[in-house]
Prior knowledge:
By secondary structure, the protein is α/β, with parallel strands linked by helices.
Amino acid sequence: MVVRAGREFLAIPGPTTMPDEVLQAMHRPALDIYSDQMVQLTEGLLRDLSKLFATKGRSYIYIANGHGAWEAVISNVLSRGDKILVLESGRFAVGWGNAAAAMGADVEVLKGDWRRAIRPAEVEARLRQDKDHSIKAILAVQIDTASGAVNDIEAIGKAIKSTGHPALFLVDTVASLGCMLFEMDAWGIDVAMSGSQKGLMTPPGLSFCAVNDRAHQVHKTAGMRTPYWDWTERDLAENYRKFGGTAPIHLLFALRQAIDMITEEGLPNVYLRHRLLAEAVRRAVAIWAQGQVLGFNIAEAGERSDTVTTVVMASSHNPVALQRYCKEKCGVVLGVGIGELAGQAFRIAHMGHVNAPMILGTLGVIEVALHALGIPHGRGGVEAAIDWLGETVTA
Length: 395
Ligand SMILES: *Cc1c(COP(=O)(O)O)cnc(C)c1O
């Protein structure tokens, strides 16, 4: 017996649901890569990406996923043996740091915790100890997609600044750009990176870096540079240089459409929609948690992200079985726990092209699964989500 049919619904934190308009934007012939149209498409996207990152700095587009942009950032600003400080808040900054280590950086992890966000005061204390400024860069994620933590990047930027330490501040916004406020220049970030397939509602395959002047200065003497990722190569005049070769034309059409949709909705509205729908999810989880089996991974309410909620489950019950039930019986795909949370958690994504029926439907399916699998839970989670939206989204 199943109640799934038709389109499977992705409630995983990437790739996310793509709007029909984005899919349709790709259904057309390629452009002549030497045409004016191609130049205009490229220039418009680079300009709009910098706007999204809120920087006066230049942006770069890679035909790669987020892991590719990680490597782009590292290779453009570091030399072998450079020391970097990775701020742990789950899996992703540490993963970025591991890539840097494999490329020859000397990586120190500022120990965090999978259950909380980065503490800016701890960053400040570590930098104050580094009197000879041996740390060349600091890596952090805005939202950690594994733990569900949102880091206060503005406060971390201020903490770094207060020490007068010259290390570059590098930030991963793969799970947050276009979903919540990000202010690259105002928050003191030197390089930010992101990917296409999460908040930006575009197929996987593109990733982005935005770079300020300070990072461009450091770049000049960076020893890890390689031709494909190299910002200097990409700044050369011919349009194909912007892609290190043939442009990913159809992905660019898709991204153009997605950014146009975000612009039309208005960024503040997009952020608010994410916050309201994320809170609806949290209201439901808080009720389910009354059954003493489920709970929030992130301990502090204020550190739970607006794009993904990680729900931990007592060892007496199996989150993988729940995930499988939702997918196979109801056609809703939840994220599973990854890293330290493998086999102990499931994740509900609420990023990008999400709306009330998608979120209420997902929550409803989870409640069906909890019921069907006999997992103890507080009754009325979906109702709490409905009440929240009904009270907040007023007529
Ligand atoms: C998904 C994700 C990545 C990795 O992106 P890929 O496109 O899968 O390589 C990096 N950082 C964060 C925060 C992510 O959520």
